[in-house]
């Protein structure tokens, strides 16, 4: 099973989107960068904030696209082409409506589940769906008509704290996650509830 070379945190750029539910993935990358003392720098050629960390005996690349969510694939494609990283060595960290706040799931492959960021990444990776996904629960507003405004609003303090705790917990297993052998780490991550 492939390890992960590129870790991508999805979100929308700009202050108005900071700490919104849709930016959970970007928050995760920021937390990892801070933990690893890795500065993230704006890289125009990658359309995102980019950094390099040394984890598990190798260099890993961190990316937060600065495109809007529905154009996330442009940044992922640029880094993959530049560093010759195949899709199965990419881990995308994103918000997930279908699991409650304070929980997370990790898997390899699958569809996009209506998530515009994943949809664009799949299309830019030539419809290859074999990348990993770390899904951070944000819960569902209850009706599909409310989803767009729900993901673009800031979570209440309790939910925000649950997300922070979830991010913190997952980063305890960063070496296991990056190794790409997901079944052992799944049990730890999937049983966590903030």
Q: What's the total count of β strands?
A: 7
Overall number of domains: 1
| Topology-level CATH name | Rossmann fold
Count of helical segments? Answer: 7
Structural class: alpha/beta
Per the principal axes of the C-alpha atoms, what is the gross shape? globular
The CATH class turns out to be Alpha Beta
Radius of gyration: 15 Å
- Kindly report the spatial arrangement of strands forming the biggest sheet: 2-3-4-1-5-7-6
CATH homologous superfamily classification: Peptidyl-tRNA hydrolase
The main pleated sheet reads as:
7 strands, mixed
Average pLDDT value? 95
Give unreliable regions as ranges: none
Estimated helix fraction = 25-40%
Report the portion of residues in β strands: 15-25%
Q: List the helices and strands in order.
A: EHEEEHEEHEHHHH
Verbal overview:
This protein is an alpha/beta fold and 194 residues long. The chain has one domain: Rossmann fold. It is built from seven helices and seven strands. Helix 2 runs parallel beside helix 3. It is globular.
Salient structural properties:
194 residues, 35% helix, 7 strands, Rossmann fold, alpha/beta
Short description:
This protein has 194 residues and is of the alpha/beta class. It has one domain: Rossmann fold (3-Layer(aba) Sandwich).
Secondary structure: elements and pairs:
Elements (H helix, E strand, L loop, with lengths): L5 E4 L14 H12 L5 E3 L4 E8 L2 E8 L6 H12 L6 E7 L7 E5 L7 H9 L7 E6 L9 H5 L5 H15 L2 H6 L2 H9 L4
Parallel strand pairs: 1-4, 1-5, 5-7
Antiparallel strand pairs: 2-3, 3-4, 6-7
Helix pairs in contact: 1-5, 2-3
């Amino acid at each position: 099973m492939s390890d992960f070379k590129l870790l991508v945190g999805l979100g929308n750029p700009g202050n108005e989107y900071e700490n919104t539910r849709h930016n959970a993935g970007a928050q995760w990358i920021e937390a990892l960068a801070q933990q690893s003392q890795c500065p993230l720098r704006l890289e125009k050629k990658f359309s995102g904030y980019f950094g390099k960390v040394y984890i598990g005996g190798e260099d890993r690349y961190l990316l937060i696209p600065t495109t809007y969510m529905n154009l996330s694939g442009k940044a992922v494609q640029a880094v993959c082409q530049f560093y010759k990283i195949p899709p199965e060595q990419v881990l995308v960290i994103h918000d997930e409506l279908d699991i409650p706040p304070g929980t997370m799931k990790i898997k390899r492959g699958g569809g996009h589940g209506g998530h515009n960021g994943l949809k664009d990444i799949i299309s830019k990776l030539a419809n290859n769906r074999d990348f990993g996904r770390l899904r951070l629960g944000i819960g569902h507003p209850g009706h599909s008509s409310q989803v767009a405004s729900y993901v673009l609003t800031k979570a209440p303090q309790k939910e925000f704290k649950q997300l922070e705790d979830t991010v913190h917990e997952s980063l305890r297993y960063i070496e296991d996650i990056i190794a790409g052998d997901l079944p052992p780490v799944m049990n730890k991550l999937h049983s966590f509830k903030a």
